[in-house]
Design brief:
With 420 residues, the protein is of the alpha/beta class. It is built from 19 helices and nine strands. It is globular and about 70 Å long. It binds a DNA duplex (22 and 22 nucleotides) through helix 4, helix 16, strand 8 and strand 9.
Length: 420
DNA sequence: ACTCCACAGGAAAATTGGGGTA
DNA sequence: TACCCCAATTTTCCTGTGGAGT
């Protein structure tokens, strides 16, 4: 039992005591256990670091380097280690290189990527976020890179997103920029979790993409423990946590394709939870409960960031499911969607678009669909919610614009009902 | 064997909206 | 102000399709 001090004034307990004495006291900043934290050490990643360093080392001697493709699932340290390696190179020869990082999930058009690269160079405030022609930005950027006389090291995180969209044009333009047009020759570090990324490339892109591959294999539970332990030791005193809690975080992370981020987040949330509850020690129970809140938070965040039409489509799927289990088809969802739109005063989109939104929701893992042929009665998708209907509904209704849908079940007759 | 439903999903056209230039 | 360029989104148009009904 850790120093639980109780000050007694006469025979009374002061109600403020529990805020004065915290049962778990933090030794270090909790942000050490967050995704943003950049550690100094990377256990079990020496091999990957060595390959990347060796590949980039040519730049130190004035040669151009091969491009690097970094493969690995989420939470295997791809981004952190790439940042670390480029950071170290910058420390060494910062006067000769410009390092630029672009996340292609956020910036996936040729235009927005070029602008982001340009921003790494001084005097780029005059470039507007849109409006210029692609050629103009391109030329401006070529001038900037040439003018700087530095080698550009461009990290493209989630580079696979560039192939899915615009048919790979973005990547082609960037390769062209990095290759012949700049003269000095830059290096691209592409990060992806899609192991077949290179195979999917357009031949004209492939031929330009000389590369070195670095694989980030998933961490196993023991390795995750090695990653977690030093961080936990920086944040907590030994007497404030069960070793088993670390083990469980590591085990859960390992089960999720060796995801260190998950393990670390889990530990942080467990600590936050324990502190809030004025617990004495972090134990496995905190971890289990932290896992549940995490899962629900992910869902909430996903729903929150959905476009409004997508939310309405999702709502239509849920309501269809409630009324007729197993029978929600594209047509039913689509017509209920239109009704719901009218209810909230939004112009509905065409059913073609709704169909795409349904596919998107399936990609997010919120719904399942199976294409079924009903012979004479056509061909359609059966749509089912993957679970947690009530949570989803609650999160959708958090959108103020959709408030009129709160009582949808008992206020209005929808076309769907009339058909039955 | 043939028809035909109710869509799936690709391709292209149209619209929208940010920003520029004269 | 009118008009142009560009990217993203949405609509329009289209072809394809598995299998119950005939």
């Amino acid at each position: 039992m850790v120093g639980k001090i109780r000050r007694v004034y006469g025979d009374k307990v002061n109600p403020f005591d529990k805020y004065e004495v915290q049962n778990i006291s933090l030794k270090g900043d909790l942000s050490i256990l967050s995704a943003i934290h950049q550690p100094e050490e990377f256990p079990h990643r020496d091999e990957q670091i060595n390959i990347m360093v060796a590949s980039l080392s040519g730049i130190m001697r004035g040669f151009s380097s091969n491009n690097i493709l970094v493969y690995g699932k989420t939470g295997t340290g791809k981004t952190s280690i790439t940042r670390y390696v480029t950071g170290m190179l910058k420390e060494k020869i910062g006067d000769r290189i410009t390092a630029c990082y672009v996340n292609c999930q956020t910036y996936d058009s040729p235009y927005s990527i070029l602008i982001n690269i340009a921003k790494s160079f001084p005097g780029s405030d005059n470039i507007p976020p849109s409006g210029w022609t692609l050629d103009r930005i391109y030329d401006e950027l070529v001038n900037k890179i040439k003018g700087s006389k530095k080698t550009l090291i461009l990290t493209l995180d989630e580079i696979d997103k560039l192939v899915e969209k615009n048919g790979g044009d973005s990547l082609y333009i960037i390769l062209k920029l990095m290759g012949e047009d700049v003269g000095i020759g830059g290096t691209i570090i592409g990060i992806t979790n899609d192991s077949s990324f290179y195979e999917k490339l357009d031949p004209r892109v492939k031929s330009r993409m000389s590369r070195e591959s670095v694989m980030f294999t998933p961490y196993n539970a023991d390795q995750l423990k090695d990653i977690l332990r030093p961080r936990v030791e920086k944040v907590l005193y030994k007497e404030n946590y069960d070793e088993a809690a670390i083990g469980l975080c590591a085990a859960i992370g390992a089960r999720e394709h060796g995801d260190a981020r998950k393990a670390i987040d889990l530990m942080r949330i467990s600590i936050e939870m324990a502190v809030r509850e004025s617990a004495i020690k972090i134990n496995v129970d905190h971890v289990y409960r932290a896992r549940d809140t995490m899962e629900i938070d992910v869902i909430r965040e996903t729903v929150k960031t959905l476009p409004i039409h997508s939310k309405i489509v999702l709502m239509a799927v849920i309501v269809c499911g409630e009324r007729h289990p197993n029978s929600a088809t594209t047509g039913e969802v689509s017509s209920l969607y239109s009704d719901l739109c009218r209810e909230v005063g939004i112009q509905p989109l065409t059913s073609r678009r709704v169909s795409d939104y349904i596919s998107d929701l399936e990609d997010f893992g919120m719904i399942n669909t199976t294409v079924k042929s009903l012979g004479r009665y056509g061909r359609t998708r059966y749509i089912r919610i993957t679970g947690r209907e009530n949570d989803l509904k609650r999160f959708i209704l958090e959108d103020q614009e959709l408030e009129p849908l709160k009582n949808i079940k008992n206020t209005k007759q929808f076309r769907l009902d009339e058909n039955i």
